[in-house]
Design goal:
Largest sheet: 20 strands, antiparallel
CATH architecture of one domain: Sandwich
Structural class: mainly beta
CATH class of one domain: Mainly Beta
Strand content: over 45%
Shape: globular
């Protein structure tokens, strides 16, 4: 299928035709033929320089847009992979001394049917019509910046690394867009300042680039440089080439953000309020075009979004994602450990995190296990690239409190590109108490290889160092996966020693060996098997499912989940109820339904029934999203667990309701 797609790109890429007279009357540029393949067989588009000012108004009526060649002849990934796009899309690239501009023309035979349901910053592109561009500014075919717009002018931006294995959706760039709609479709005019991007200075730049358009009512996804349906735009290695860029300057990349905050508090029963004040400073400096230094003094995390509540009926800690801005930016640089499985299957809204082990988990810094804040005195971070090397250095100092001594946290991460889209690297993590000699250190190496387009091999090995511990401090993982249109299969093996300890990481459980197998051929089957270090089974979760994907983007899944758990210490499911030491097995039956998320109202439903340790369970997870307009969104989720247990234990019910109302200006 990939060969066929490449043939379609090559054939259709040489076709050139003019816009209709009506389109020209509306200010659209003439279509200009372009050289569609470079020496390495990639599609190519040339950027054109302008000395004149460009008015960002969503109308491509400046003279330079007529001179710029068009990147056109998009190819479908969905629903008919390899076929020409059902609607015409053309993209032109121009630049001046300060910024890169994209002129995007999305023709549509039925423009009144465009779907726009959100204009918030960082909207969800998959739920509406949208256009995306990937800029691989180092042309390393693995890292880049993604900018997304919809017909209403909403914006979303993302940093990607290692072809999408590391995705940072919290990256916020400075850029602008203006859009218009007319009788022939919609137009976007995008301005991206060069100082927003990282790239090596010099003449005759070659950047990697790819463009994608989503036509939501048709559930259609089109690419300029063809991408198989099992992947997405983040696969930078499948992109084309952008030529003609100048010796651009990123300027002085220095940003200083001081802050001041005040508060008054009064304890219950106290006669008066106590006033307090806080000051702090954040500094960002571009050390080189590809290395950025961030410094924070007494950072303020008051604006961080609150954690979404979860109900825990397992033996293990729940995974809560990082939401503090300082730790989110460039977080992919420090990623080491489990890589979430690439899969189109499953209910996204209620899917559990795939992470079993993350060597670096920033929520361990400045937060207690219960989520209470520990003040941070200061911290610094250096991230970026030096040639074929990706580097990251972070150090944070926390204050001493009545319940926790001050600690210094240090993380050093290095990675080298090898064999095209593969990499090898290492990591060092340290927590050192400033009040005593207590410490914990972890050393790790990893290797991630991609062969062909579908075969991936990932592995890591780590050792912890804790005072007074001499053995059982090793951990490692190896996995191999094949991800193609018809077949997805993966096998992985994880081992974690009894005494492996990582005070700067997330580890679900220690003293185990985990076997994971997944075969996806609609229906698909999946199995997780855990053993202890002597290979005695302690847990398994198997999953056999049949999934139906609807043309409008909805899906239905029926699943059987056989479970087994062996516990060596009593497990408290509630403060007053415990399961005794022993082995337990049961079956769960699951129905998952998702309706069309681009509709004005959409629903996600997850029903589970069957066993639960020694008893039975009925679990309902319901999510409803209502969008009266693209300004207003109501989002409500309900989770209910009805647990029945035999005497002398007693039944119980848990209920969790979360609601959000969003209004975008």
């Amino acid at each position: 299928m990939c060969t066929r797609a490449a043939f379609i790109v090559a054939v259709f890429g040489f076709v050139a035709s003019g816009f209709s007279r009506t389109a020209r009357a509306n200010g659209d540029p003439e279509r200009v033929a372009l050289q569609v393949q470079s020496g390495d067989g990639r599609r190519t588009v040339n950027a054109v320089e302008t000395q004149d000012a460009i008015t960002l108004d969503g109308v491509l009526n400046e003279e330079v847009w007529r001179r710029a060649p068009a990147a056109a002849d998009f190819v479908q990934a969905e629903p008919h992979e390899g076929q020409p796009a059902s609607e015409r899309t053309e993209v032109r690239v121009v630049f001046d001394r300060d910024a890169l501009y994209l002129g995007v023309r999305c023709f549509d035979a039925t423009p009144s049917a465009l779907i726009v349901n959100d204009i918030r910053k960082d909207f969800t592109p998959g739920e509406q019509d949208s256009f995306e561009v990937l800029l691989d500014t180092f042309a390393d075919r693995r890292n880049g910046f993604v900018f997304v717009v919809n017909p209403a002018g909403a914006k979303s931006d993302t940093q990607i690394a290692n072809e999408g294995r590391d995705v940072n959706t919290s990256w916020d760039a400075v850029w602008a867009v203006a859009t218009t709609r007319d009788a022939e479709g919609w137009t976007a005019e995008i301005r991206i300042p060069f100082k927003t991007l990282r790239f090596e200075p010099g003449t005759n730049h070659l950047w990697g680039v790819n463009f994608s358009r989503r036509i939501r009512r048709k559930n259609e996804v089109d690419y300029w440089s063809a991408v198989p349906r099992v992947y997405n735009l983040y696969r930078a290695g499948l992109g084309g080439t952008l030529t003609g860029l100048p010796d651009a300057s990123q300027g002085r990349n220095l940003r200083i953000k001081p802050w001041i905050a005040g508060d008054t508090t009064r304890a219950v029963g106290a006669p008066s309020f106590d006033a307090g004040g806080h000051v702090g400073l954040d500094v960002k400096y571009g050390v080189t075009p590809s290395l950025t230094l961030d410094v924070t003094v007494r950072p303020d995390f008051a604006q961080a979004e609150a954690d979404e509540q979860q109900v825990n009926l397992t033996q293990f800690s729940l995974f809560y994602p990082e939401k503090r801005e300082f730790f989110l930016e460039n977080s992919g640089t420090f990623y080491f450990g489990d890589i979430p499985r690439e899969s189109r299957l499953g209910n996204v809204r209620f899917a559990a995190p795939e992470e079993e082990m993350l060597l670096f988990f920033s929520r361990r810094i400045g937060l207690t296990s219960s989520g209470e804040a520990i003040p941070i005195q200061a911290g610094g971070r250096l991230t970026g690239r030096a040639g074929v090397y990706g580097v990251g250095l972070m150090t944070i100092q926390t204050e001493s409190t009545a319940t926790a001594p001050g600690d210094n946290y240090t993380v050093l991460r290095g990675r080298r590109d090898v064999l095209g889209t593969s990499d090898i690297g290492g990591i060092f993590l340290s927590r050192q108490s400033t009040a005593s000699g207590d410490y914990n250190r972890v050393y790790g190496v990893d290797a991630n290889f991609r062969f062909h387009r579908a075969l991936s091999i990932n592995s890591f090995f780590a050792k912890s160092d804790t005072p007074g511990v001499t053995d059982g401090q090793l951990a490692g993982k190896a996995s191999v996966s094949w991800n193609a249109n018809f077949l997805h299969t993966q096998y992985s093996f994880l081992t974690v020693g009894d005494n492996f300890r990582d005070d700067v990481g997330f580890i679900k459980r220690t003293g185990i060996r985990k076997h994971f197998a997944d075969v996806g051929v609609h229906p698909h089957a999946r199995a997780n098997i855990y053993t202890d270090q002597q290979n005695a089974e302690v847990s398994h979760t198997n999953h056999a499912a049949f999934s139906v994907f609807l043309e409008n983007g909805g899906n239905i899944e029926f699943a059987l989940n056989p479970r087994f758990e062996r516990i060596v210490t009593p497990f408290k499911v509630r403060p007053d109820q415990s399961f005794a030491i022993g082995s337990y097995d049961w079956n769960e039956y699951e129905l998952l339904v998702e309706t069309n998320h681009s509709a004005k109202a959409s629903l996600s439903l997850d029903l589970t029934t069957g066993g639960f340790w020694t008893g039975t369970q009925k679990s309902t997870k319901l999510g409803v999203i209502v969008r009266p307009s693209y300004h207003l969104t109501f989002d409500t989720a309900l989770q209910r667990n009805d647990i029945s247990l035999p005497f002398p234990m007693h039944d119980f019910v848990t209920n969790l309701v979360t609601s959000r109302i969003g209004y975008a200006f």
